[in-house]
Write a structure and sequence with these properties.
Blueprint (H helix, E strand, L loop, with lengths): L4 E5 L13 E5 L2 E8 L14 H18 L7 E9 L8 H7 L10 E7 L9 E9 L4
Parallel strand pairs: 4-5
Antiparallel strand pairs: 1-2, 3-6, 4-6
Helix pairs in contact: 1-2
Length: about 140
């Protein structure tokens, strides 16, 4: 059986990142891709209309559930992609790190991409987050 090796790195040839890492290298094991999660609970009901914090909390709970369904956890997450609506004020952005840091390894955070978009599929969604995890194959 091949085991997974993950190396999270911040090469000296790039600027020092704040709250994320630049490079994730994976060898062996398996990759898990989690589709973009939005602020809907298990019944499909929107959580946190016009409430950025509440939406992020639901999104990270959804990511956690999706990871668990694949036998993974946030310890296995190597990449997070954020898609945030332009209407979210910049003053709300520290909430992203605050909530994310409850789930990820903050001493070696996953690589990340954060983009602003004009809107998501449904106008009541303020943010969407997708994840990639790497872990050992099942025994």
């Amino acid at each position: 059986m091949t085991s997974t090796t993950v190396r999270i790195d911040n090469p000296s040839s790039l600027h020092k990142p704040a709250g994320y890492s630049h490079v994730a290298q994976v060898s062996g094991g398996r990759l898990i891709y989690i589709a973009g999660q939005v602020a809907q609970d298990v019944s499909g009901t929107l959580v946190g209309r016009d409430d950025f914090r509440a939406q992020l909390q639901q999104i990270f709970a959804n990511l956690n559930a999706a990871l668990a369904s694949a036998g993974a956890s946030f310890n296995d997450v190597i990449k997070l992609n954020y898609f945030c609506c332009e209407q979210v004020p910049a003053t709300d952005l520290p909430v992203v790190r605050e909530i994310r840091d409850r789930f990820v390894n903050t001493s070696s955070p996953p690589i990340s991409t954060f983009v602003f978009v004009s809107r998501l599929v449904r106008p009541e969604w303020l943010v969407e987050v997708e994840a990639v995890a790497a872990l050992n194959p099942p025994a």
